[in-house]
Structure formats: structure tokens, C-alpha cells
Design goal:
This protein is of the alpha+beta class and 182 residues long. The protein contains 3 helices and 5 strands. Keywords: Membrane, Transmembrane, Transmembrane helix.
């Protein structure tokens, strides 16, 4: 005599198979969900880093160009005008912003950044503030949802020697003092 009743030969096997398949599907879904979420966070971090360094790159360019000058103007107003001219060199003709394009990632992966130079104080201290704003981003969702891209202006303070605010710098020397780019 069989240990199973009539018609019960495969019901335990079927029930076990359904439970195992269901648990495998749920586990697979959870693994895929967390893997995609992590990949999205990595992309987001990369985009934020690129945006940060695009902003800081503008300030680096301004300092580099000022170091090439044979004689840096003494007044902060003249330094401000000179740095504004250097910032204008970065902008393509007919454009109003510096365009950063990353074709290796995608044709829509772009940042449009504007820079304006502000004399921090009224005295000749050599301190200049570069206000850097993100005014356009590409059509990729990862770029449109960056918190850093929604910040109107970030501030980078430069010390353009000589001046009372940068006593250790000589003519033509410069240094980045503070950044507020995030």
C-alpha cells in the first residue's frame, strides 16, 4: 500500500516548486533593483563631480591666464575687468555661456555655465569672487535632477596678488581661497 492517498503523488512536489520559483523571482527582483539603484547613484556622483570640476576649471583658467600677464593691474576694479575678459575667452562666439560637452558619454551630456567676476571689497585687497552658475544641462534625466545643477550661483574666492588680502602673493601670483560649489 502506498504512503500517499489517491491523486496526491505530485502535489507536494508542485507546491515546493511554486514556492521555490516565487522566492527566486522575488530575490532576483530585489537584486536587480538594488544593483540598478547603485548604478544610478554612481552615475549621479560622476555627474556631480564633473559639474563641480567644470565650475572649478573656470576659476583655474582665470588664475592661469592671470599668471601669464607680464603685469597685473594694481586696482581690484582693473583686475575684475581683466578676469572678466579672460572669462569671455571661454565662451564660443554667439553664445552666452561656457559649454562643457562630454561626447564619450553622450551627445546630450552637456553643462552650460556662466561666470561673472565680482570684487569682494572696496579696498585693494586682491580678493576677487568668481560667481559660477549652471544655466543649462543636457536632455539626460540624470543631469536635470542634479541638486548642484539647480543652484543659481556658486562662489569661488580668488586671491589675486598683490593685495592686503593676500600678503604673501607677488604680482602675477594667484591662489584659490574658498569654494562654495556644492
Amino acid at each position: 500500500m502506498s504512503a500517499f492517498g489517491k491523486g496526491e503523488h505530485g502535489s507536494i512536489l508542485v507546491l515546493t516548486s511554486v514556492v521555490v520559483m516565487t522566492s527566486m523571482m522575488v530575490t532576483g527582483y530585489l537584486i536587480e533593483h538594488f544593483w540598478l539603484a547603485e548604478a544610478h547613484q554612481v552615475e549621479r556622483s560622476l555627474a556631480q563631480l564633473q559639474l563641480h570640476w567644470a565650475r572649478v576649471g573656470i576659476a583655474d583658467y582665470l588664475m592661469s591666464r592671470s599668471r601669464q600677464e607680464a603685469s597685473m593691474p594694481a586696482s581690484d576694479a582693473e583686475k575684475s575687468i581683466l578676469l572678466g575678459n579672460y572669462a569671455a575667452e571661454l565662451v564660443d562666439p554667439g553664445q552666452t555661456e561656457v559649454k562643457f560637452v562630454y561626447p564619450e558619454i553622450g551627445s546630450d551630456y552637456t553643462f552650460g555655465i556662466k561666470a561673472q567676476i565680482v570684487d569682494v571689497t572696496d579696498v585693494a585687497d586682491g580678493l576677487m569672487r568668481v560667481d559660477v552658475g549652471v544655466f543649462s544641462v543636457g536632455n539626460l534625466e540624470i543631469l536635470r535632477n542634479l541638486p548642484a545643477a539647480n543652484v543659481a550661483w556658486s562662489q569661488i574666492t580668488l586671491c589675486m596678488g598683490p593685495g592686503t588680502g593676500c600678503p604673501s602673493l607677488a604680482v602675477g601670483q594667484s591662489r584659490m581661497m574658498r569654494t562654495n560649489t556644492d
